């Protein structure tokens, strides 16, 4: 459905706002093909005033259209109001690369002045198939951000038939509105909201940064190939203040071989999900709980780092056996041959050089490492119990004095160290199978 032949935009009523007056349609069209750098920015900045004392709602929706469309981007805006006021005219600033929506002009109607004065804004952004953008930014004060149709294709192939190609960065930011996108792809993707929730599946190329203050984050992460010309680590950064975090990993047999780095933090929200471990992964929350499934992806890295930190939230971590690509299987075989020559006095593989730390103050820590893991364990607590279990786990030192407990152990000949600390919470560590 292309612009503006059928620009039918919905304005659903809410519990306290019944929309009765509709504006005209506003249409703006843009061509980016002749630009040396194709950047495009959409801004919604409608401040609350006496004309909209009941609030501003609405959605900005991104829609793919056929390649035969004349313009790369076409934008259709429509507004609806409750009984007290109606929209007299739009206040929109449009340049070659910017579309900014501000508070429209209003005029009084004969409607009741007692009911809340509400404004609903519907914006559809039609993107022509084949459009190429360097940077695409959308920022809203009131509206949510959504999409219809398949803008991007799932998968890791370099030759996917995406409707739009964003070669550098995209920024999708709201203050109040929710962000819900079936699938989104750009080399660097920034998604943020102050109070809205964030949902959808997002490709992880060089950077996927997702943040919210009080809204929840519930997303799927799809690992993608590095840039052949400028390869970089794939960074996943997620942050909330009080919102919960729930991240699913879209796994395939062809997960690209590259370095994956992860940083997830929250003040009081819980952290849950499945994550890739490359060279480093860090998780921290103050009062929220933590439930993590870690999938190591071996690319020959030495001493990868994994850390979890909570204050009063329970920590549950399970590390599964690593995925090792065919290329690095050959390197692993050579390392195993050298280990055999050294009478087995060291172990190869990323989980034999893993440096991990897990700390809490008052909550419990439950860790499950795969049988393939080897290394040293140092666990200490002020008053919590310490249990280190697993076939091949040998306790070297068990020290307990009033106000302090410490246990040192090892499994195999791995060079890595797992450091576990608590104040009053219990520590329960299992490597592989119960002996």
Task: Describe this protein's structure.
The chain has 435 residues and is mainly β. The chain has 3 domains: 1-149, no CATH class; 155-256, no CATH class; 273-288 and 299-435, no CATH class. Helices cover 4% and strands 52% of the residues. It is built from 1 helix and 33 strands. The strands form 2 sheets. It has a 17-stranded mixed beta sheet that branches. A 16-stranded mixed beta sheet has the order 6-7-3-9-11-13-15-17-19-21-23-26-32-28-31-30, with no helix packed on it. A hairpin with a 3-residue loop joins strand 6 and strand 7 (98-108). The mean pLDDT is 91. This is Adhesin domain-containing protein.
Given the helix and strand composition, which structural class is it?
mainly beta
Contiguous runs where pLDDT drops below 50 for at least 5 residues = none
Percentage of β-strand residues: over 45%
- Overall geometry: elongated
Count structural domains. 3
Number of helices: 1
Mean pLDDT metric:
91
Query: Helix content range of the residues, please?
Result: under 10%
Number of strands: 33
Distance between the termini: 63 Å
Radius of gyration: 27 Å
Largest sheet: 17 strands, mixed
Protein name: Adhesin domain-containing protein
Organism: Polychaeton citri CBS 116435
């Amino acid at each position: 459905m292309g612009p503006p032949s059928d620009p039918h935009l919905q304005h659903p009523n809410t519990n306290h706002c019944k929309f009765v007056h509709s504006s005209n349609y506003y249409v703006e069209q843009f061509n980016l093909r002749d630009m040396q750098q194709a950047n495009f920015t959409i801004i919604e900045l409608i401040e609350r005033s006496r004309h909209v004392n009941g609030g501003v709602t609405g959605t900005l929706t991104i829609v793919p259209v056929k390649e035969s469309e004349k313009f790369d981007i076409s934008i259709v805006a429509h507004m609806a109001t409750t009984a007290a006021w109606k929209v007299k005219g739009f206040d929109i600033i449009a340049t070659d690369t910017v579309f900014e929506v501000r508070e429209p002009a209003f005029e009084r109607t004969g409607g009741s002045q007692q009911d809340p004065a509400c404004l609903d804004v519907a914006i559809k952004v039609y993107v022509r198939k084949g459009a190429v953008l360097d940077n695409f930014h959308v920022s809203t004060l009131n509206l949510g951000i959504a999409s219809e149709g398949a803008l991007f294709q799932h998968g890791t192939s370099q030759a996917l038939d995406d409707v739009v190609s964003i070669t550098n960065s995209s920024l999708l930011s709201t203050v109040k509105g929710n962000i819900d996108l079936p699938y989104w792809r750009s080399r660097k993707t920034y998604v943020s909201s102050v109070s809205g929730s964030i949902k959808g599946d997002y490709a992880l190329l060089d950077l996927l940064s997702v943040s919210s203050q009080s809204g929840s984050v519930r997303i799927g992460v799809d690992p993608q190939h590095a840039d052949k010309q400028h390869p970089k680590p794939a960074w996943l950064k997620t942050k909330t203040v009080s919102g919960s975090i729930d991240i699913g990993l879209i796994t395939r047999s062809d997960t690209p071989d590259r370095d994956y780095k992860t940083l997830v933090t929250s003040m009081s929200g819980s952290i849950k999900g499945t994550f890739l471990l490359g060279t480093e992964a860090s998780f921290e929350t103050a009062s929220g709980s933590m439930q993590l499934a870690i999938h190591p992806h071996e690319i020959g890295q030495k001493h990868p780092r994994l850390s979890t930190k909570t204050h009063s939230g329970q920590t549950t971590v399970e590390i599964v056996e690593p995925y090792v690509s065919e290329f690095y299987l050959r390197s692993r075989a050579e390392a195993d041959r050298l280990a055999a020559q050294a009478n087995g006095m060291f172990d190869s593989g990323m989980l034999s050089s893993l440096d991990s730390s897990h700390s809490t103050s008052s909550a419990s820590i439950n860790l499950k490492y795969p049988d393939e893991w080897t290394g040293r364990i140092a666990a200490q607590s002020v008053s919590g119990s310490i249990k280190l279990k697993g076939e091949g786990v040998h306790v070297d030192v068990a020290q307990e004095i009033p106000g302090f407990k410490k246990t040192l152990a090892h499994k195999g000949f791995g060079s890595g160290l797992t450091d576990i600390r608590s104040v009053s919470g219990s520590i329960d560590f299992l490597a592989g199978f119960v002996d």
